């Protein structure tokens, strides 16, 4: 049994006007493990912390219990000041007898005092049995691996290289640029795609810190935050790179709507990519195009909006309307998705350029008229209630971006998640580029369909997040937490009593546990770099083998005994 | 059914598909005992009655045998499910186990209140439909009423417990060493009756998604606590809400163990079947 | 030498981040984690901005406050970030390539480092001028509303920790800065002059942020949904989208976040009280982000939320005072109707804060270059002014945070290039 000093804070009367401190002192004196009881007016404002710590040392205490306000208000200030004076964090306990006791039971001081006594006894029991987790550090490789050299990957590569880090840029195809290479003009600034890509391509060529690996394919990934080993095949050889962070910028692919609206059968029904290609090589010939939106999107199969197809149609439609005299351009849509100021203005400008918009409902899609060549499109205009027949010479289908076929495989290799549609998913919307494995980031259309401008922005943002890892020479597992100072250790297995049942492996959301056969027995092993101390494994472990030392079951059991 | 089982067992031994067949034997004093049949000649004494779960013993045999030792177990439905649950929990290697599945009779199913009195891999005997335990008067009696009434009913039953640990010892799924029920923090040693109902609730929850409703616990209990009924409710909820049943397939993991990133069930109401029971009985 | 080694060695001047909402906090943390010192200036008394006022976030239905709070705490405790609340940027001067700022710190009559959050000052104040500015402040502290304060001195006497000093004056802090990130976010616009919306004519015609607070679990009614007029449970609620937005009279842009915001609010109304009928009056339903379309479908199909395509022509309190008439044309069925609603929520009238912060006198507040609608115009090429979040363009939380990190990265690159 450790010796404990107990410090009770009156909080300027806020606590002691309800709770009887004499009663507390009396009760605490009965506990042989309590070697010092000190009652002060205010621990956070009017106590000399240096003096407090010498008192603690002189009384031969091993641990310190503070009974004051909640950690979420001022309690943590006291803890932090004790730590600054050299008291170790796992030897300090805090009990809230203000927000959770004095302030809510003002009408019943007698019971409030008893409750405070119980809370303090629980705090003492907890302190007695609190244990400290292990920790581990890895040396960080100060280089980044970026998968995918489209605009997102290029932006990330340039940002990191300019900051002074080595960048390894892996790309599946022969040249960098991604889908942006296939596009003639970008929205909303109508900039040439090659202008946008130019500075990044030059950087990749000229910056010695960027190593470009075209036609490479990842085969396996090992390691953890700060220390990933990525195996890949390059120029028919097997190579590997050790990197501190990985940025996934693999983009997405285009959906080809075979079978929809006669695509594949009727000659002049094309999709947006073909429109771009024809624009690029000058073979585009149309005077009365009809664009159809949401082809293969926002339906049962793909219940999502692909963000970029409406602005793309606006861009291409207005180009025809402005450049070709006498053109008749229609956009058939289920709602034009142009959120924001720039895109909404783009929509208004397209309206002014003479493009006509017809809204249709999902249940009544447009009908193609024509067998070899489309002659007209018939559509039920939902706003006017009139069925219209529009003469046309080219039908352009706007299709969504869909996830790459190998997203699931790559996600398994990297230990990150894909969402229900197949795009890589982030851990939380407020941290939209971070995944469940620290140090692996997602950006661009690999994450969710976005325009090239936003891809570039996301690439830069992902690079910024990567910098905070790369700049550290060593990363301790205990720092990998969303809330600094509040991460309570890691799960720990007692190898002798582990039955190897595998419940922890299944329950862990971060894939931190795995089963190994050691000396003929199956035992669970916890990877501290991945463990976030969420406690899922502890709750499913049948015999209490898995514990988080700072909240072990013995501690909880003793606390419960104190409470009842 | 007995002859067919003997033939299958004989074939397994002769073709060396397994090192031994584990089943029940009538020995020279006319007493039934579990037996490792290694010699086909010994199969003359093989019997299939009474219901005797061999899963836990099989696990221990395999554990103490060399790595290439293969065991063929003659098992009923509940036994096969228990074996599958042990496989799921890495206690038995799938490659070292064969099963010879035998069906139970309708009478046996009625005694055990079993709705699946046959193994998935059935080798001998005829499948019967079994009984729905929730149609049985005894079970219904335990499940009607509101939470307070049910709690009181169970607390009264569990007061009889003498902590013989028979339920834990006979249960094929209870394999943890050390067992939480012997941990001073939760259950004091040498105190009877068990504190409040901690002992039994700990056991019920640890088994919630693994229990195969074999009834061994109830059969073992010297003071007739209907421990099987305590588990039936959870099995039914798992089946209806999650489509999960323990012991049917070694690849299917319990929904309790699903990753935190799957969307949780936000419905906080009682499972529907309890409501339907309540309405019927209150009419 | 890498970029931040250079920063640390030369002690590069601080980056000034204007606005302490989710974008400003993210940019500050990103820069500080990379070794760049930051001064974060926030006009209210707390960090968190508009997101801290939200109850839940779409599309995950998580609580808005707690995860933001962890980042607020990190910000306040980071050694490289200096947080100035109740402050604004008075001046920004660029001379000889050196950028300098003057921050005007409004007096913190109640020192948040000393406030123990007891509330005795609030009880003693005769003018009801003291209260915490929001439920979840960090650090928790009371604030005095200068406009209501009668300078009676009761609070100063009663405060047990001596945290109140009414003699404090504004403080001017001059410092050299390297760059400025404008993260000024949005504010709700007054649309009383757009008569058809009936804004301000009935207590049950509310803006969406008012409704958010009114029905928030941490708000006035702790999650119960009742009418503001008589406290009864409403039978139905109308959400009017694009109120003031996509409107050449006022806000020509689409505010980007309101469609999903309405779906989220309707979803939570249904979760809290299945009996209340919800109708959303829309022009286009902008559901571009991950899971947004599915979220809207789920509401429509499972929760039986009615969608009506049409912008109401008139919203008017009924003569009896009980209920509000909404006159609209359902543009898909081409039918005109008048229906009575118990609560009407006006959604869409949000604008960049900068358009509302017209300095009272020239020289009293520094503002960046903005367009007609109030969005910051970023210079191309070499620049020291960056923007992110709603101040740059209408953006939801994910996009705001991405822009903030990207702005921070651009500053880092600028710093690296300068070596």
General description of the model:
The complex is a heterotrimer of chains A (564), B (283) and C (419). Chain A has 564 residues and is an alpha/beta fold. Chain A has 15 helices and 28 strands. In chain A, the strands form 9 sheets. Chain A has a 5-stranded parallel β-sheet with strand order 8-7-6-12-23. In chain A, a hairpin with a 6-residue loop joins strand 18 (367-369) and strand 19 (376-381). By secondary structure, chain B is α/β, with parallel strands linked by helices. Chain B has 2 domains: 2-131, no CATH class; 134-282, no CATH class. Chain B is 37% helix and 9% strand. Chain B has helices at 2-14, 55-63, 77-88, 106-112, 137-143, 147-158, 166-170, 198-206, 216-220, 227-242, 272-282; strands at residues 20-26, 32-37, 46-47, 71-75, 97-101. In chain B, strands 1, 2, 3, 4 and 5 form a 5-stranded mixed β-sheet that branches. Chain B is globular and about 60 Å long. Chain C is α/β, with parallel strands linked by helices and 419 residues long. In chain C, the strands form 5 sheets. In chain C, strands 1, 2, 3, 4, 5, 8 and 19 form a 7-stranded mixed β-sheet that branches. A 5-stranded parallel β-sheet of chain C has the order 10-17-11-12-13. Chain C has a 3-stranded antiparallel β-sheet with strand order 14-15-16, with no helix packed on it. In chain C, strand 2, helix 3 and strand 3 form a beta-alpha-beta unit. Chains A and C meet through helix 3, helix 6, helix 10 and helix 12 of A and helix 1, helix 2, helix 3, helix 8 and helix 10 of C.
Output the keywords:
heterotrimer; B: 2 domains; 11 helices; 5 strands; disordered C terminus; C: alpha/beta; 2 domains; 5-stranded parallel beta sheet; 23% strand; globular
Topology:
The complex is a heterotrimer of chains A (564), B (283) and C (419).
Chain A: E1 4-9, H1 21-29, E2 34-40, H2 49-58, E3 63-68, H3 71-84, E4 92-96, H4 98-102, H5 109-129, E5 137-139, E6 143-147, H6 151-163, E7 166-170, H7 193-206, E8 210-213, E9 216-224, E10 227-234, E11 237-243, E12 245-248, E13 253-254, E14 269-271, H8 272-281, E15 289-292, H9 309-323, E16 330-333, H10 341-352, E17 356-359, E18 367-369, E19 376-381, E20 386-391, E21 394-397, E22 401-402, H11 407-414, E23 440-442, H12 452-470, E24 474-476, E25 492-493, H13 503-507, E26 513-518, E27 521-526, H14 536-540, E28 546-547, H15 553-563
Parallel strand pairs in A: 1-2, 1-3, 3-4, 6-7, 6-12, 7-8, 12-23, 14-21, 15-16, 15-21, 16-17
Antiparallel strand pairs in A: 5-24, 9-10, 10-11, 13-22, 18-19, 19-20, 25-28, 26-27
Chain B: H1 2-14, E1 20-26, E2 32-37, E3 46-47, H2 55-63, E4 71-75, H3 77-88, E5 97-101, H4 106-112, H5 137-143, H6 147-158, H7 166-170, H8 198-206, H9 216-220, H10 227-242, H11 272-282
Parallel strand pairs in B: 1-4, 4-5
Antiparallel strand pairs in B: 1-2, 1-3
Chain C: H1 3-10, E1 14-18, H2 22-33, E2 38-41, H3 65-77, E3 81-84, E4 87-95, E5 98-105, H4 120-124, E6 130-131, E7 143-144, H5 154-158, E8 171-182, E9 186-188, E10 205-207, H6 208-215, E11 236-240, H7 258-272, E12 277-282, H8 292-301, E13 306-309, E14 314-317, E15 324-330, E16 335-341, E17 343-346, E18 350-352, H9 353-356, E19 385-387, H10 397-417
Parallel strand pairs in C: 1-2, 1-8, 2-3, 8-19, 10-17, 11-12, 11-17, 12-13
Antiparallel strand pairs in C: 4-5, 5-8, 6-7, 9-18, 14-15, 15-16
Helix pairs in contact in C: 1-10, 2-3, 2-10, 7-8
């Amino acid at each position: 049994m450790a010796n404990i000093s107990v410090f009770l804070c009156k909080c300027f009367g806020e606590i002691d006007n309800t709770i009887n401190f004499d009663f507390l002192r009396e009760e605490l004196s009965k506990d042989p493990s309590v070697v010092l009881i000190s009652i002060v007016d205010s621990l956070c404002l009017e106590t000399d912390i240096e003096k407090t710590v010498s008192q603690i040392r002189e009384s031969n205490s091993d641990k310190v219990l503070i009974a004051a306000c909640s950690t979420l208000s001022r309690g943590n200030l006291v803890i932090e000041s004790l730590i600054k004076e050299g008291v170790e964090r796992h030897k300090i306990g805090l009990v809230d007898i203000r927000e959770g006791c004095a302030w809510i039971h003002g009408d019943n001081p007698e019971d409030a005092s008893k409750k405070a006594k119980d809370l303090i006894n629980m705090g003492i029991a907890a302190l007695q049995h609190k244990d400290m987790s292990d920790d581990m550090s890895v040396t960080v490789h100060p280089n980044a691996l970026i998968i995918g050299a489209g605009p997102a990957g290029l932006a990330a590569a340039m940002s990191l290289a300019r900051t002074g880090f080595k960048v390894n840029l892996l790309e599946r195809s022969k040249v960098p640029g991604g889908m942006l290479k296939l596009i003639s003009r970008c929205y909303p600034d109508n900039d040439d795609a090659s202008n946008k890509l130019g500075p990044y391509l030059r950087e990749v060529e000229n910056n010695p810190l960027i190593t470009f690996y075209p036609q490479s394919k990842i085969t396996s990934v090992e390691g953890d935050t700060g220390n990933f080993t990525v195996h890949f095949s390059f120029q028919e050889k097997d190579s590997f790179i050790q990197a501190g962070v990985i940025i996934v910028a693999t983009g997405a692919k285009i959906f080809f709507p075979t079978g929809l609206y006669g695509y594949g059968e009727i000659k002049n029904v094309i999709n947006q990519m073909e429109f771009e290609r024809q624009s690029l090589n000058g073979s585009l010939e149309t005077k009365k195009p009809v664009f159809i939106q949401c082809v293969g999107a926002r339906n049962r199969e793909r219940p999502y909006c692909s963000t970029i197809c409406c602005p793309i149609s606006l861009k291409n439609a207005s180009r025809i309307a402005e450049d070709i005299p006498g053109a008749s351009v229609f956009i058939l849509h289920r709602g034009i998705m142009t959120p924001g100021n720039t895109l909404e203005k783009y929509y208004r400008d397209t309206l002014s350029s003479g493009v006509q918009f017809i809204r249709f409902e999902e249940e009544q899609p447009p009908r193609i008229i024509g067998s070899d060549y489309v002659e007209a499109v018939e559509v039920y205009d939902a706003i006017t209630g009139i069925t219209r027949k529009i003469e046309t010479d080219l039908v352009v289908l706007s299709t969504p971006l869909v996830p790459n076929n190998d997203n699931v495989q790559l996600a398994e290799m990297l230990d990150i998640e894909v969402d229900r549609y197949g795009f890589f998913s982030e851990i939380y919307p407020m941290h939209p580029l971070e995944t469940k494995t620290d140090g692996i980031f997602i950006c661009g259309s690999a994450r969710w369909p976005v325009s090239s401008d936003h891809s570039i922005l996301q690439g830069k943002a992902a690079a910024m997040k990567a910098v905070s890892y790369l700049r550290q020479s060593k990363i301790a597992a205990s720092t990998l937490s969303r809330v600094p100072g509040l991460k309570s250790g890691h799960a720990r297995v007692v190898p002798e009593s582990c039955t190897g049942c595998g419940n922890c492996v299944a329950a862990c959301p971060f894939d931190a546990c795995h089963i190994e056969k050691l000396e003929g027995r199956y035992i669970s092993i916890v990877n501290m770099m991945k463990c976030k101390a969420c406690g899922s494994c502890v709750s499913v472990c049948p015999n209490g083998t898995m514990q988080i030392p700072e909240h072990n079951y013995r501690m909880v059991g003793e606390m419960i005994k104190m409470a009842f | 059914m007995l002859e067919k089982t003997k033939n299958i067992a004989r074939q397994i031994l002769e073709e060396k598909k397994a090192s031994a067949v584990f089943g029940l034997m009538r020995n020279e004093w006319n007493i039934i005992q579990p037996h490792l049949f290694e010699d086909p000649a010994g199969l003359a004494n093989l019997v299939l009655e009474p219901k005797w779960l061999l899963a836990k013993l099989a696990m221990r045999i395999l554990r103490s045998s060399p790595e290439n030792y293969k065991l063929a177990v003659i098992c009923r439905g509940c036994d096969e499910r228990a074996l599958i649950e042990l496989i799921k929990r890495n206690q038995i290697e799938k490659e070292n186990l064969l099963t010879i599945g035998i069906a139970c009779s309708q009478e046996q199913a009625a005694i055990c209140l079993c709705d699946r009195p046959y193994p998935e891999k059935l080798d001998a005997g005829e499948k019967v439909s079994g009984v729905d335990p929730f149609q049985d008067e005894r079970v219904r009696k335990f499940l009607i009423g509101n939470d307070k009434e049910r709690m009181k009913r169970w607390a009264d039953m569990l007061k009889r417990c003498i902590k013989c640990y028979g339920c834990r010892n006979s249960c094929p799924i209870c394999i943890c060493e050390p067992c939480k029920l012997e941990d001073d923090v939760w259950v004091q040693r040498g105190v009877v009756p068990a504190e409040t109902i901690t002992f039994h609730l700990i056991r019920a929850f640890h088994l919630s998604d693994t229990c195969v409703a074999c009834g061994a616990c109830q059969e073992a209990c010297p003071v007739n606590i209907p421990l099987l009924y305590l588990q039936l409710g959870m099995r039914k909820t798992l089946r209806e809400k999650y489509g999960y049943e323990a012991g049917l397939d070694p690849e299917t993991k319990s929904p309790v163990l699903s990753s935190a990133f799957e969307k949780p069930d936000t419905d906080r109401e009682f499972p529907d079947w309890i409501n339907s029971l309540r309405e019927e009985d209150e009419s | 030498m890498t970029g931040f080694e250079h920063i640390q060695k030369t002690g590069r001047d601080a980056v000034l981040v204007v606005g302490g909402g989710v974008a400003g906090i993210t940019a500050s943390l990103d820069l500080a984690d990379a070794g760049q010192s930051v001064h974060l200036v926030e006009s209210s008394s707390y960090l968190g901005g508009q997101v801290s006022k939200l109850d839940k976030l779409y599309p995950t239905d998580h609580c808005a406050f707690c995860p933001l709070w962890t980042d607020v705490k990190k910000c306040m405790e980071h050694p490289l970030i200096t947080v100035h609340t109740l402050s604004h940027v008075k001046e920004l001067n660029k001379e000889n390539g050196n950028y300098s700022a003057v921050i005007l710190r409004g007096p913190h009559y109640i020192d948040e480092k000393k406030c123990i959050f007891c509330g005795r000052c609030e009880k003693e104040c005769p003018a009801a001028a003291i209260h915490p500015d929001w439920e979840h402040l960090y650090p928790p502290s009371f604030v005095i509303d200068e406009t209501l304060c009668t300078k009676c001195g009761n609070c100063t006497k009663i405060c047990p920790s001596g945290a109140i000093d009414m003699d404090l004056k504004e403080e001017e802090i001059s410092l050299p800065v390297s760059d400025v990130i404008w993260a000024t976010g949005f504010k709700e616009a007054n649309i009383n002059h757009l008569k058809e919306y009936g804004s301000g004519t009935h207590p049950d015609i509310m803006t969406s942020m008012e409704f958010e607070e009114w029905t928030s679990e941490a708000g006035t009614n702790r999650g119960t949904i009742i009418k503001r007029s008589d406290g009864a449970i409403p039978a139905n609620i109308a959400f009017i989208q694009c109120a003031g937005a996509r409107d050449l009279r006022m806000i020509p842009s689409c505010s980007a976040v309101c469609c999903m915001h309405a779906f989220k609010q309707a979803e939570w109304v249904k979760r809290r009280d299945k009996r209340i009928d919800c109708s959303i009056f829309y022009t286009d339903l902008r559901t571009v982000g991950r899971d947004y379309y599915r979220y809207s479908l789920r509401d429509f199909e499972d929760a039986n939320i009615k969608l009506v395509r049409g912008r109401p022509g008139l919203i008017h309190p009924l003569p009896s005072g009980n209920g509000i008439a909404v006159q609209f044309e359902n543009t898909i069925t081409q039918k005109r109707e008048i229906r009575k609603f118990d609560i009407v929520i006006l959604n869409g009238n949000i604008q960049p804060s900068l358009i509302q912060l017209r300095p009272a006198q020239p020289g009293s507040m520094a503002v960046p270059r903005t367009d007609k609608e109030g969005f910051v115009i970023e210079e191309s090429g070499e620049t020291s002014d960056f923007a992110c979040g709603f101040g740059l363009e209408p953006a939801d939380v994910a996009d705001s945070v991405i822009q903030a990190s990207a702005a921070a990265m651009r500053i880092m690159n600028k710093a690296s290039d300068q070596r």
